[in-house]
Amino acid sequence: MVMPFDALSDPTRRRILDLLRIRPRLVGELVTELGTSQPGVSKHLRVLRAAGLVTVRPEAQRRWYELRLEPLAEVDAWLTPYRELWNTHLDLLEQHLEENP
Predict the structure, then answer these.
(1) In the chain, what is the straight-line distance between the N-terminal and C-terminal CA atoms, in Å?
(2) Strand duo 62-67 + 25-26: pairing
(3) Which residues contact 27 (CB under 8 A, 6 or more apart)?
(4) Looking at residue 71, what DSSP letter applies?
(5) 45-101, pLDDT tens digit by residue?
(6) Among the listed residues 26, 36, 17, 19, the one whose alpha carbon sits nearest the alpha carbon of residue 61
(7) If you ran DSSP here, which 8-state letter would residue 51 be given?
(8) What strands lie across the sheet with 25-26, from one edge to the other?
(9) In this structure, what are the phi and psi dihedrals at residue 51, rounded to the nearest 5 degrees?
């Protein structure tokens, strides 16, 4: 099984998710948007499906790919303590800059 973090490590897969965030898309649309080969896009979609980040909805001869939000919520939950740490450091930097113009 592919974990969401593994799938998100590739910039092309992140770009696919960005496109699917806007609306469901067909493989051909993704190929056009990414400027990549159809087999390449299909490979990335297989990884994203294995990670549970996208689903496919067959419609006659076409396959619509859609974003699944649940695995991204897990990623967000994991990032929360790091985000809080980062915000704390930014607050300290802001305080330092205000005290030392």
Answers:
(1) 52
(2) antiparallel
(3) 38, 41, 42, 45, 63, 65
(4) H
(5) 999 999 999 999 999 999 999 999 888 888 888 888 888 888 888 888 888 888 887
(6) 26
(7) T
(8) 25-26, 62-67, 54-59
(9) -85, -5
CA distance 56 to 73: 20
Name the residue type at position 56: V
Confirm if 19 and 33 have CB atoms less than 8 A apart.
yes
Rounded to whole angstroms, the Cα distance separating 6 from 47 reads 9
pLDDT tens-digit profile of 20-56?
Answer: 999 999 999 999 999 999 999 999 999 999 999 999 9
Q: Return the number of other C-beta atoms located less than 10 Å from residue 7's C-beta.
A: 23
Q: Which residue is associated with the tokens 């087999």?
A: 39
At position 50, the amino acid (one-letter code) is A
Copy the structure tokens of residue 28.
């051909």
CA 4 to chain centre: 9
Its sign, for the CA torsion 44, 50, 52, 56, is: positive
